[in-house]
Structure formats: C-alpha cells, structure tokens
Design goal:
Nucleotidyltransferase, domain 5, alpha/beta
Length: 404
C-alpha cells in the first residue's frame, strides 16, 4: 500500500494541435490548486483494493460524490495528508474486509514504506490480532521497491490529466473534487503484474533491482573527445509541387488540373504529386470530421454530468473522520426524507396570478346568515323604526299644507 497526492486542475506536459494564428488557444494550468490524497493497494494476484480519498476539508459535502463510487471511502484532513487515525481507519475499513475472505486463515503480508503513521501502537495491535504481517521497506528505496510508485501511480496521474484535458476542451473551466472519479485504466492487470515484476518482489528476483543500481567506478577515466566529421551536404533539388488545398475552391481547382494532365504521358510525375496533395486534403478533412465528432460526444457527456452536479446542493453530510460511499448515500437519503417531511416552501408573498388561480380552484363559501338579535334589542329597534316613520309622516303633512 502507498499514498500519492494528485493536484486538481493540474495538467501535465502534452502536445496539442493549435491554429498558427492563435497559439494561445489552449487551456493551461488552472489558478486554483487543490491537492487530494488517495491511498491505493495492489496485491501480487493482480488485484487492486478500493481506494480511500482524503479531502482537504473538515466536513463531507454532498456535491463531491455526485456519481456512484460503491466501496470507496472518503476521509477529511485539514492538510489533505494521511495521519495515524486515517491510516488505522484504512486498515480496519478497507484492507481487512477486502482481503480477509481470500486468505484461508493464512497470514497476510502488508508492505508499506517507513512513514511514521504506518507503525503506530494501534496499527501494530490490530495487525497482531488479525494475523497481518506488517513489512516495512528500507528508507529511500520506495522508488525502486514499492510497486505502486514504480508502475501504478504514473498511469493513474496520466489518466486523470487526460480526463482534465478533455474537460477543458469541452468548456469546463472549474475542476473540482467531484471530477476525481473512477480511473480504472491505471489499475489494469497488466500494470499490476509489471509493477510487482519490476520491483523484483514477485516473482522474487533481486537482480531486477540490483543490476540497475549504479556502482562506483574502479578508476577515474577521462573520456576522449569524439572526432566530429562534417560532411558537405549538397542541397537537393526540390521539385515544384502544388500546395495541399484547404478550401473547396482549391480542391476543385486541383482536381481540374489533374484531369487536364492525366492524358499527357510526359506529365505523369506532376499528376502523381497532385494526386498525393488531393489525398492529403481528403485525409485532413476526414481527420477534422473525426475530431469534431469526438468533441461533440465529449460535450454531450460533460453537459450530462453538469446537469447532475447542478441539481445537487452542497449539503454537509457529516463531519466524521472517515465515511464510506454507502454511508454517504444513506445520510443523503435520510436528509432528503427529513426535508420532504418538513415541507419547506419558498418564503415571500404569493404572486397575484397564483392567488387568483388558487381562488378559482377554491371558491369562497356562501355567507352564513346573521344570528337573530336578542328580545330587548329587537324591541328597541322596533321603537326606533316607529319613531322614524312618524317623523317622516309629519314632514310630508307639513309640506302639503305649505303648498296649499
């Protein structure tokens, strides 16, 4: 087993094709640099254990694991490096469960480097209780004797950089923790077998390492300078050839020239050169179409991934030191159930149209009849009506007399 750091948004040295008029039309290293640590383990029977990813954080976020990675474990560390607690968790959660069923009660040998967190008291007690033999490599020899360092980690980082390069070409400018997903190409059976063979550990062959170890010279010898002979090279006569067409008009023009010279026996070499240029133009067009098709498929894949990530909120799923992907899924489902039970809605007043629709869908009930007044109140109201009627009658009589 061994750990390695992977720099997010970090591209390696790659060769790309760009337009000669726009030499900067390619994305380089991103500004924000975040390193994560992955703990990997490979066995001599061509197996690789599921990894443990260490985030540089203090809590687990839901949008970091938007794609399924069953069996993976995730840890949090402020420095993104492993420590004694994380190493013990890896031993108990990853190594022991995934290797115990294949040993038939035989001892298991775990090879690691001389890092101090690999040999704590808790780790040694667990190894002793579970029949695990902890083997430590000598100092400054992991680059020669550690199979992960020799053959596995380089393809792992190359596969990740290739994925980041494709994301950049597809228009994704921000590379985050959620983009570090399955990279099975690095842990192929061929890479694992060659890693153990290159270190001379399985099959056991110490000469595989010792023969590449430099030996001190017996006596100091000064090499003689090489005799450099410079031959005069005469420039070859370069025949005049047409240029490769890059447009439809030039393509048709070259085709017409070929048809004109095809019947002339003296112009056979010239026709051959023009046919070659025509073939080159066809190859370029086919290659360009293939690149466009590849870019289209990459954009479709990136768009689908972006939809999933945008639909996932950054919710804190826990602050445990180490948690598995299955536990994250259970926590995410529990959180979604609680939110659904609460029935949280958006704050603020309803829109006028929504209020009208709601009023139409739920018509207002008929008004209830007013309750009858009490007897005393009814008599007082009756007397008031009688006085009002008498007053009105006197006013009408007075108006009639004045008119007469």
């Amino acid at each position: 087993m061994d750990e390695t750091g992977v720099m997010l948004c970090m591209l390696g040295s790659v060769k790309v094709l760009v337009n000669k008029n726009n030499l900067r039309d390619y994305k380089g290293t991103g500004v924000k640099r975040t390193m994560i640590t992955t703990i990997e383990c490979i066995s001599a029977n061509d197996r690789s254990l599921l990894p443990m990813i260490i985030w540089p954080a203090t809590t687990h976020r839901s949008n970091w694991t938007t794609f399924p990675t069953p069996g993976w474990h995730y840890a949090c560390s402020k420095t993104s490096y492993t420590d004694s607690k994380i190493n013990l968790e890896w031993l108990t959660r990853v190594f022991d469960p995934q290797t115990k069923g294949q040993t038939n009660q035989k001892p298991r040998v775990l090879i690691c480097d001389d890092f101090g967190t690999h040999e704590t008291l808790e780790v040694l007690e667990f190894c002793f209780a579970n029949n695990i033999i902890l083997c430590r490599l000598p100092s400054h020899t992991s680059h020669k004797l550690q199979p992960c360092d020799v053959k596995v980690f380089a393809p792992l980082k190359a596969a990740y950089r290739d994925k980041i390069k494709r994301l950049y070409q597809g228009g994704v400018n921000t590379i985050g923790k959620e983009h570090f997903t399955l990279l099975d190409k690095a842990f192929s059976k061929r890479n694992i077998t060659s890693a153990w063979a290159a270190t001379g550990l399985f099959p056991l062959s110490p000469d595989r390492v010792l023969r590449h170890t430099p030996k001190p010279p017996d006596q100091l010898s000064v090499p003689e300078p090489d005799n450099i002979r410079r031959d005069s090279i005469l420039p070859d006569e370069v025949p005049q050839t047409p240029t490769t067409p890059v447009s439809a008009k030039a393509f048709i023009s070259l085709h017409n020239l070929i048809k004109q010279d095809i019947l002339d026996e003296k112009s056979v070499p010239r026709v051959q050169r023009r046919v070659q240029k025509l073939a080159n133009a066809g190859q370029k067009a086919i290659a360009y179409c293939a690149l466009l098709e590849n870019q289209k498929q990459s954009l479709i894949k990136i768009n689908n991934e972006a939809k999933v990530r945008r639909s996932t909120r950054a919710i804190v799923l826990g602050n445990a030191n180490v948690i598995s992907f299955e536990d994250l899924e259970v926590t995410r489902a529990t959180r979604a159930t609680k939110d659904a039970m609460k029935g949280k809605g958006k704050r603020g007043r309803k829109r006028k149209r929504a209020a009208l629709d709601e009023g139409e869908s739920h018509p207002s009930p008929e008004p209830e009849p007013e309750p009858e007044p009490e007897p005393k109140v009814a008599r007082a109201a009756e007397r008031a009506r009688e006085r009002t009627a008498k007053r009105n009658q006197r006013q009408h009589e007075h108006q009639g007399q004045s008119q007469c």
